Amino acid sequence: MATTDKASPRDRLLDAAAQLFYRDGVSIGVEALCRTAGVSKRSMYQLFDSKDEMLAASLERRLPWYEAQLKPADPAAGTPRERILHVFERVEKASTDPEYRGCPYLAVLVELKNPDHPASEVARRVKERLQDTFRTQAERGGARDPELLARQLMLVFDGASARAGARVERLDDGLATATVTALLDAAGVR
């Protein structure tokens, strides 16, 4: 996400935060954020009470884009099974990008380790929404235990994104979708 001169200082800060936090982690300094955004520290602190607040705001702002990456073009199309598999196909595709670092929301939860941090609260809500989506699709698909399946799918999602983001595992061979297919079969999802 490149910053533009026409964007407001707030937008430039949020763009820089999203880019740097994803690439370098949440420990990136205020100096680097402001330099990348082309905004003074004074301006930053007029817009945000803290770097923590800016991180949370950048995660909130990125959410529509993130969720759109995981949804099919037509959310009503396909079976519940196909909708679940689509999410994992998208992760597999995203993981081939050299800039891929895994799920940004999982990364924040892992890095911060503080459940009360404003960014952790945003990230946790995002992960809960994804799990709710999995549970809803599992129910619609006739899963024997939709709650358990949703939790299992989250383990695969987070594990696949973390391992691919760390360049420990390649997902371009369909490993995630094969794993999810086995879970869906075992749960009886149509």
UniProtKB/TrEMBL annotation:
It holds the Pfam family TetR_N. Keywords: DNA-binding, Transcription, Transcription regulation. PROSITE patterns: HTH_TETR_2. Residues 7-66 form the HTH tetR-type domain. Residues 29-48 bind DNA. PANTHER family: HTH-TYPE TRANSCRIPTIONAL REGULATOR YJDC, TRANSCRIPTIONAL REGULATORY PROTEIN. This is TetR family transcriptional regulator. It comes from Streptomyces diastatochromogenes.
